[in-house]
Specification:
homodimer, 434 Repressor (Amino-terminal Domain), Rossmann fold, 6-stranded parallel sheet, DNA-binding
Chain lengths: 345, 345
DNA sequence: GTGAAAGCGCTAACAG
DNA sequence: CTGTTAGCGCTTTCAC
């Protein structure tokens, strides 16, 4: 990359407008306390020179960056192709933009990247971090902790040890699952199966808990482990049909696995919902509305979660990691879910 | 957001190691020209204090940022849910990471955001920009031009006026389309229709051109405008069936619209590929492999495109916008496509 | 090879 | 209200 063209400095603008650098600085930062003849002279000079403040210099003294990092761990490659993140990112982006704050996306693909991320966060680039902690054993939270940057987590973090406090935003996974299964029971279904998500993620674990809340004494063979993918859903569904051919309903941990399950059910000649009722989770429109039949599912407002994360961080509810040990106890915001009825259950 | 915890400075490390700031700086930046007793003393001090260089201060003097902006315009909301971007981003991210460079994602949702992006790019945050110019009339390229930052475009930019030169990476959209249609012809199909993409994007226009290359004298009613979405594909397919019930093949501008077309064909009792052969574009696995029947399609290596964009920028082939007017002529890299045969054609 | 000193572009007291 | 003066934390000549 070649050098960037030299840009005019405050000094240059000051000279051109015939004022001091301080005055230009004031005008550029809102113009408070500068009288009229000057303010427009300065504005004119800024315009003519195409002056844009150098953020590095500004941050050096203000210690503000007007930027927030979004950290996404991507151990499996599938993660980013998931519309889930796209939606959450959009929510975040919108909220940040409204606050004139930049979004810096940090993707990590493995442990090698952790150090880089830690350096970045500690190196004075951002005012805070939004972190998606995907897996229970993820070392990332610890690193971010060390960087001493205010942080909000997306989804309930996995470390239940209480050693850290954490601000996070999550959906009511357990409650949503409960509602789905209760709905199936209300439909008169008795042999209700569950296809789990990747159980090293809290969302999957919480949905399984919700299933168990309602089906306390369920046949353990009615629970098959999936991984949030259509392929995983297919695998799990085949397993279930083999183990319990008499099942009459399936609650899948997300819409993607539900779509896989639907495919297998069709393959086996089971009618949905007549023979087997199916409920998903997420209400990911491009999936849930396009399946055959359209999917009954538990909706979570993913974009709103993103927006909320950003809002919490910006409002200063972001947890200063350095103090985390002191406070103890987590401060989570849990968003409600709603059951969306379509044709599959 | 609360203040970030105070971090140790070079000064502190120097004091602790009993050397000057200059020496610490040298060690931190590779340790060239510092003798052994000192270098390890400094390393130790760095370690103990948890020192991380302040990038703002560093950039202020070096004028390097070790960061690259990725600018994505998102006029329609659908854009980001598209796996296309996810893949391209991953390619970019991987390449940048390999060069110890940060990825800063800038999402723009409308003209209001343009100024913000311009300021960001000009404000000294990044060494260059990767820009996805989605629409022909997008004002973004101009703005980025003004920021005077090296830039590589994703996809051939729409301004064909030759006023700007531009470095870009694109797929061989026209050639790929040609290959698809030629394949259909080879299959003995004679009434071949085309569902276009959003024609204000060069990729859609180029694919249409490729279609015409082979079907020079095609019945104009065999061309229906789509918009790269499944819904658009459905609409276009209905239109085509109404206008030309005798069609025996469809080339859709992407897999998503092909999936919509398949749905409509099934609805109308047309067998694929027996009655109507269908070919898509992209080879977006989650779509192309899951359709019924699996989709024959033109593959482009999207992730590689992203990687290549980053590589070009990093290698200094990035176009210094300030000089763009001088050079004239565009420097584009066009990646080959390959036809992937599945069941639909 | 190492340290001293200057200065990157900006903001924030502090005078006037 | 406006200008003057110090730095923010770092790299980089330039002497030693």
């Amino acid at each position: 990359m070649r050098e960037t063209a030299p840009r005019p400095t405050l000094e240059a603008v000051a000279a051109r407008a015939g004022v001091s650098r301080a005055t230009v600085s004031r005008v550029v930062n809102g113009g408070e306390g500068v009288r009229e003849p000057l303010v427009s002279r300065v504005r004119k000079a800024v315009e003519e020179l195409g002056y844009v403040p150098n953020q590095a210099a500004r941050s050096l003294v203000t210690r503000r960056y007007d930027a927030v990092a979004v950290v996404i761990a991507e151990p499996e490659t599938r993660v980013f192709a998931d519309p889930f993140f796209a939606l959450q990112l959009r929510g975040i982006s919108r909220e940040l933009t409204a606050h004139d704050t930049q979004l810096v996306l940090l993707l990590t693909e493995g442990r090698e990247d952790h150090a880089r991320v830690g350096r970045y966060l500690a190196g004075g680039h951002v005012d805070g971090a939004l972190v998606f902690s995907l897996h229970l054993d993820d070392p990332l939270p610890g690193l971010i902790h060390g960087a001493g940057v205010p942080t909000v987590f997306g989804g309930r973090p996995g470390w239940a040890d209480g050693a850290h406090s954490a601000v996070y935003v999550d959906s009511d996974n357990r409650g949503g699952a409960r509602e789905a299964v209760t709905h199936l029971v209300g439909l008169g279904r008795r042999r209700i199966a569950h296809i789990t998500g990747a159980l090293d993620q809290t969302s999957a674990a919480d949905r399984l808990d919700g299933f168990r809340d309602v089906m306390a004494d369920a046949d353990p063979r009615l629970i098959a482990e999936g991984d949030f993918t259509p392929a995983g859903g297919e695998r799990a569904m085949r397993q279930l049909l083999r183990r319990c051919p008499d099942l009459d309903a399936v609650f899948a941990a997300n819409d993607l696995s539900a779509s896989g399950a639907l495919r297998v059910l069709r393959e086996h000649g089971r009618r949905v919902p007549e023979d087997v009722a199916v409920i998903g989770f997420d209400d990911m429109l491009p999936v849930a509305e396009q399946t055959d039949p359209p999917l009954t599912t538990v909706r979570q407002d993913i974009e709103e979660m993103g927006r909320l994360m950003a809002r919490l961080l910006l409002r200063g509810r972001g947890d200063r990691a350095a103090e985390a040990g002191v406070a103890g106890g987590s401060a989570g915001v849990v968003l409600p879910t709603t059951l969306v009825r379509r044709a599959s259950a």
